[in-house]
Amino acid sequence: QVQLVESGGGLVQPGGSLRLSCAASGRIFSIYAMGWYRQAPGKQREFIASITGDGSTTYGDSDQGRFTISRDNAKNTVYLQMNNLKPEDTAVYSCRASFRAYDYWGQGTQVTVSS
User: Fold this and answer.
1) Could you count the other beta carbons within 10 Å of the beta carbon of residue 51?
2) Each residue of 66-111: pLDDT tens digit?
């Protein structure tokens, strides 16, 4: 069992930055591929980025070069650095841990981009 807790969300002005964190429980964090997703009201969940245990990254279409995923296996934490935020980035951001048949989600953290 893996528990995921996201943090770092909040209200930010357009053009601003946020760094989201997702802390995972467990002693074998490094085997899990970690991903960030977001869901805006009335929209489907959207893939943002993922990172394997050895640091290989994949980004979705929403990135546009503004988001960077990283992880610190010693701290059991994955990060999402978001720069040049836009109002359309407003959503609940959730992290995901997956390994073979195992799949875990956090509760999410709200990001609101507004002036």
Assistant:
1) 22
2) 999 999 999 999 999 999 999 999 999 999 999 999 999 999 999 9
